[in-house]
């Protein structure tokens, strides 16, 4: 099995080679799959991400959520606690560059992990996913620290070529409930 570092490097290179047209098409297909999921349709509070580095773009899903009057949250860096928290996303026009150049909503209305119970679903980007729901991220643990406190629906978001046979998993890695790509919805085997 590849190490996390070698697998991360290979998958990031593969993702960076995806054309802008393919990214746009795949993003729309993923967003369509998300809006068709009954768990998502029935959710009232959803945590999303703002795409970076050729990740699947959730703009059309976010707009659908606003139209459906869902409450959205996105990660934002909280300097005082030196950690990411989930911040209320009122509008994409409010998004600004934050820590590490990552776009995030203003840090005015946020949840700390002990209040994550009100969130029904959490959409999580990744560099790779396996069919058991494990996710390979950038290796900083930002999402793992958020997800460890979250017991709701965890939806990994990626391209079909990001589905791999096995992700090396550490004890602190949190598996996804499902993984959505432009071609399929993967439910980890029980």
Overall shape: it is globular
CATH superfamily: NagB/RpiA/CoA transferase-like
What is the SS-derived class? Answer: alpha/beta
Unreliable runs, pLDDT <50, ≥5 residues? Answer: none
Which quaternary structure do these chains form?
single chain
Count every helix, treating DSSP H or I runs of 4 or more residues as helices.
5
Rg, Å, rounded: 15 Å
Assigned CATH architecture? 3-Layer(aba) Sandwich
Distance between the termini: 23 Å
Number of strands: 13
User: In order across it, which strands form the biggest sheet?
Assistant: 6-3-2-1-7-10-12-13
Total of domains: 1
On the 0 to 100 scale, the average pLDDT is 90
Range of strand content: 15-25%
Estimated helix fraction: 25-40%
Question: What can you tell me about this protein's structure?
Answer:
This protein has 5 helices and 13 strands. The protein is an alpha/beta fold and 190 residues long. It has a single domain, classed as NagB/RpiA/CoA transferase-like (Rossmann fold, 3-Layer(aba) Sandwich), CATH 3.40.50.10420. The strands form 3 sheets. It has an 8-stranded mixed sheet. Strands 9-8-11 form a 3-stranded mixed sheet. The protein has a two-stranded antiparallel sheet with strand order 4-5. Helix 4 links the parallel strand 1 and strand 2. Helix 2 packs parallel to helix 4. The chain is globular, with a radius of gyration of 15 Å.
